[in-house]
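Quick start: read one record
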Amino acid sequence: MRVLIGTMVLGGALAVGGPSLMSVRSTPDIVVTPQVADDSVVAKPATRDTAVFAGGCFWGVEAVFEHVRGVTNVVSGYAGGEAKTARYDLVSSGTTGHAESVRVIYDPAQVSYGNLLRVFFSVAHDPTELNRQGPDKGTQYRSEIFYTNADQERIAQAYIKQVDDAKVFKKPIVTKVEPLTAFYAAETYHQDFAAKNPDHPYIVRWDLPKVQQLQKAFPEMYRTTSANTGQ
């Protein structure tokens, strides 16, 4: 679990004097999920769409999607609970119903919802871990897709079945699929945390490798600069 010390956020499983940016751990073997069998959506005139994903600490999930071509904005926040409990100190208790989540604004003409799902399942997190990711444990770190329309629900449910049936992972996917009732942006210091704090021990240990995995697994979708910061 990450803990707050003043306004600095640290990974509870890491020493403050952790590894430097130059000693990023080598990326493990990547489980690349297959193409989505049915990625069709009802045509809409809008040039932007929204997807919301939860997959552990939002710093790393945000960092991954910020580097996906076609994504225009990513916000870290909370989904699954009520407005009055959408605060980091309360969500961290694991009792609010919220999951640390990211809201992804993207251009469907450049990247499909199905390809966002491939990134989510392949590199953003481990979808077979129940209520935990890496060193972080609790329902606030659960794997969940919050769909915003019927197309997203259908595509997500069908894709989970497709991947499970193909036995891509050694264990079944535990990702929940539920409608998005509301998304609450997290505190300012959480936004673009990885891009602004690349030397932070938690980021170096757990999150920069995910961005490396994105580049390795999906070079055609990878963008060098962050959608939010341009870094």
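Residues 3-27 have pLDDT under 50 and may be disordered.
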